[in-house]
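User: Study the shape:
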Amino acid sequence: MSLPVIYTPITVLQAPWDGFYRGVCGHFKMDFMRCASRVGYSRAQYECKKELEDFRECFWQQKQFERTRIMEKERKRQGREYITPLGKDIPEKGY
């Protein structure tokens, strides 16, 4: 991941060149880039740790998968069945 030397409006215009700026995690990447451009490349991993962790969680969703695994394990431990899906709200429209 390359960091901008300074954060300017041109940085925002060049953001779509990197694929990570598209989609739901783009704003997390921009937050990290803003922070990293203030402190520099060598200190960015330490001083912008929260922003980098937010971006990584959005991109990889490790905490979400871990929560799902824990809930699945607890459901199996209690011997519960899966709940039945709710019925359709508007049958004529198909959803």
